[in-house]
Design brief:
The protein has 197 residues and is mostly helical. It is built from 8 helices and no strands.
Length: 197
Amino acid sequence: MSTGTEDFTAKARIRNAALDLFADFGETGTSMRAIAAAAGVTVGLVVHHYQTKDGLRDAVEERIVDLFDEAIAQAPTSGGAREVAAARDASVARMLEQDPAVVGYLRRALLDATGHKGMILHKLTDLTARQVATLRTAGLASTDHPDSSQVIGVLVRQLGQLFLQPMVDSAWEQLAGPRAPEDGKPRLVIGVADPES
């Protein structure tokens, strides 16, 4: 079970089971009964803690935002603005690598053409805006560009790879063969151009 394995309370086990199942099968493809079974609890306990699947989704999304926040907090704040941004991006990338369910959830939530009911992008945008404001105040982010451009740039750098890396990996394997050395694979670099540049 993913995220927060250090928290063994029934409530956390339910939330973590929901994250895993939502990542694999989507919210609509996951029943409360399946979540209860995966968490080793009764459906009644799931309802007691979260009331509805919407309540579970909200808890899952809050946990994902907390994981982003924790990863960013672990990044060093020494050096210039570029070094700080790179350290934060690397810390988020490590967190995502360690928790594939978060990646699966984000892919489903942000790319689902049927429309996702959650607010994960809104929540991550708010977190990023607060982080950018803190960095700008501390002199660790440029104030030459609008903060909105910086927020979008951070989101694209941190989330863009989630969506495009599988395409790069698949194309590389097709073109170079399944035993192609990893060190030859093209490196995916994602960014947002400032409209004035």
